[in-house]
Amino acid sequence: RRYIQRILKDDLKASQVKKRKVHTLTTNQAKQRYVRGKKFIKYLSRRKLKFNFTMDETMVPSNEIRGVTKFYYKKEAVVVPDAWKKLPRTNWPKNGMVAMGICWMGKSRIYVVPEETTINADNFITLILKLMFEKDIPRLYGKDAKKVIFHMDSAPAHVAAKTGQWLVDHKFSYIPKQE
Length: 179
Known about the structure:
By secondary structure, the chain is of the alpha/beta class. It has helices at residues 2-11, 27-40, 46-49, 62-66, 121-141, 156-159, 161-169, and strands at residues 52-61, 95-103, 106-107, 111-113, 149-151, 173-174.
């Protein structure tokens, strides 16, 4: 093993890079996606595709926001500044949540959720959903805004009864969670 590592390092000048963790599906998740996918296809016809509006949110580490990483690159004969070797401590939040939508006509604004906000149905409706339907969908679709079919993943706040009821009360079409 050491012999091979020495060949890789010294002779081939290869450096070891850590693998990224990736999302893997369990067998049940794969089956669920297959079943739901077949039902979802009916929303992707040529006539309807133009009116599908998909949204999602994600957590963004604050270090990525500021352009700071946990590593640096080093090469022979290049002097690395000391500042590159240190990871600064910050008072920034560890993660920030952002949400955005995309459709045939373009994309929504990026909504930044205030730090330490729990995303439940009430906050999801107030901080993201309501704003998308009041600002982005009318801007993107104009008079055809009522034809939009809203699509979300199966996050708890997205599939909550309160979220579905809000969409129904405001007469917005949406793709429901398929069991």
